[in-house]
What we know:
Low-confidence stretches: none
Strand order of the largest sheet: 3-7-6-4-5
CATH superfamily of the largest domain: Rhodanese-like domain
Number of domains: 3
Helix content: 25-40%
Structural class: alpha/beta
Oligomer: single chain
Largest sheet: 5 strands, parallel
CATH topology of the largest domain: Oxidized Rhodanese, domain 1
Mean pLDDT: 89
Number of helices: 10
Amino acid sequence: MDVSPAEVYAAGHIPGAINLQRSDLANPWDPVPSELLTVSQMERLFSRLGIQNGAALYIYSQTAYDATRLWWTLTHYGIGPVHVLNGNLQTWKDLGYAISQEIPNLVPSDFNLDPLKFQTRINTSTSQLRSSLSGNIQLVDTRSAAEFSGQILTAPAARRGRIPGAVNIDWREHLDKAGRFQSVDELRALYLQKGIREEIPIIVYCHSGFQSSLNYFVLTQILGYGNVSNYDPSWVAWSRDLSLPIECDYSRFTIGSVLYDLRSEESTLDTAPYIREGRTYLPLRSIALAMGIRERDIFWDGGDGTVTLTKGDQTVQLVLGQKMLRI
C-alpha cells in the first residue's frame, strides 16, 4: 500500500502496490480535519481497494508519517498483520529492487471490521486528555519547535502554543537523511534526554494526529513502550476550545486594540498599538505599565537594538525589526 500523492505513485511504485491518498484516511464529515475514519468509512474504503479480511498488508509512503498514520488506523481497528517499510521508495530503489508504473486492477471486496479486535485505548479523546492533565502522564508534542513555542500559527488551529506540560520531540528527529528510522539506541536516547520515561503513560499529539502517529509507532514498535496513546484530535481541536488551557512563549498584539495576549493570558494596555506613516508603534511604557514593570527596570541595548523589561524572574525582550515579542 503506497500512501503517496497520486502523481508520485504514477511516476513509479513498488510492483503490485495500490495507492491511497492522505485524504482517504481522514473523516471528511468531522469538524476537526484529519480525524479517524468511522467504522463504515473504513469498511467502504478497504472494500473499494479490494482488501481481503486477514490479508497481510505492507505500507510505505513518500512522507514517513503517512505510512505510520495508516498503520495506526489499522491497528486501532484491529486489522493485521501490518508492516511498515523502513524508508521510502528511494530506499527500495537504492537496494536495487524494481519499480513499476503499472496500475493494479482493483476488484472490490466485502471487507468487514471485527469490533472485538478494536484497540480503542490507543486513541485519546479531548475529554480524556483534559481529565488526565492533573494526573501522572507525559505529553509529547511532535510538531516543529516554532509551532510548539507559539512563534507560528498553522491553520486551521485557533491559538498559538501547546498543551500545558508537553515536551517537544519533532517527528523528523526519528529519521536519518535517507528517511529511515534512527537506531534503537539513538531513539531511546532522544526520549530520555527529554525526560520521557517508559513506566509513565505517554500521550503524543501533533497538529491533526498524523505526524504524531510516527512518534507512536517508534515508541511502541521500535522501543517497545507499552502505555502509549495518540491524541488524534491534536492541537487543532485543543486550540479551538477556548475553555482549555494552553502555554505559549510569545505574545500577540492587535493594531488598534488595547487587549493583548501575554503568554496566552489576556491583558490590557493603556495605549493601543498604532500605525503612523506606514510603521507600527507600541509604546514601551504601555507594555511596562500593563505588566506592572517600573521604568527603571527597562533596559536599552543600542548595540543589538534590544529592549529588555524585567519583573522578578520574568523577562521580556523586544528586538527592533522583529514581528514577535519573546517572553
